[in-house]
């Protein structure tokens, strides 16, 4: 079972109900949320060639794009590598490299500090910053028709420690 099945059921049953807010602003309902996730997944699969099991790192603070990114990765069967937004960019770069992440989503406020380290990461093929035109293109991509099936033992998340006593 793919974790996105829960979102898809909610979108079918309660599609018009509000799903994501930013403060008082409604960003999308459940139908829109599911479409955003499917579109992100479609972009990553079709345009970047990611395959189920590939790692997708998220180095972002809380914001309205976090959940569509998270569910978009799961929609395609990718493994999410969430990185604590309070970590130093060097620690984040280590996690990205060690996990073999192919794609990085990074908040605008952290993008400048981690960007110089990204060129030396061989597995990374793309970086997206919410609020940019490159990121907005993800939401307009052709969505995957259905979540990629995952086996019970497949990895959905890959967590790292903070590295306070050593490397993460």
Describe, in plain words, how this protein is organized in 3D.
By secondary structure, the chain is α/β, with parallel strands linked by helices. 40% of the residues lie in helices and 15% in strands. It has helices spanning 4-14, 30-47, 66-75, 89-99, 108-118, 133-139, and strands at residues 18-22, 25-29, 55-59, 79-82, 103-106, 126-128. Strands 4-3-5-6 form a four-stranded parallel beta sheet, sandwiched between helices. It has a two-stranded antiparallel ribbon with strand order 1-2. α3 links the parallel β3 (55-59) and β4 (79-82). It is globular, with a radius of gyration of 16 Å. 35% of the residues are buried. The mean pLDDT is 94.
The structure class reads alpha/beta
Task: Name the shape in a single word.
Answer: globular
Question: What is the C-alpha radius of gyration, as a whole number of Å?
Answer: 16 Å
What proportion of the residues is helical, as a percent range?
A: 40-55%
Strand content: 15-25%
């Amino acid at each position: 079972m793919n974790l996105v099945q829960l979102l898809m059921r909610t979108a079918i049953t309660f599609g018009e109900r509000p799903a994501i807010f930013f403060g008082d602003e409604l960003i999308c309902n459940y139908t829109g949320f599911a479409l955003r996730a499917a579109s992100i997944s479609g972009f990553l699969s079709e345009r970047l060639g990611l395959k189920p099991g590939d790692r997708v790192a998220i180095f972002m603070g809380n914001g309205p794009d976090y959940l569509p990114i998270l569910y978009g990765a799961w929609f395609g069967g990718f493994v999410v590598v969430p990185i604590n937004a309070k970590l130093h960019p060097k620690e984040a770069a280590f996690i990205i490299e060690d996990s073999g992440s192919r794609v990085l989503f990074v908040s605008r406020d952290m993008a400048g500090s981690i960007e110089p380290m990204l060129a030396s990461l061989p597995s990374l093929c793309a970086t997206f910053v919410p609020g940019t035109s490159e990121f907005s293109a993800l939401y307009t991509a052709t969505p995957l028709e259905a979540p990629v099936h995952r086996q019970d033992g497949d990895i959905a998340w890959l967590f790292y420690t903070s590295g306070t006593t050593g490397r993460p």
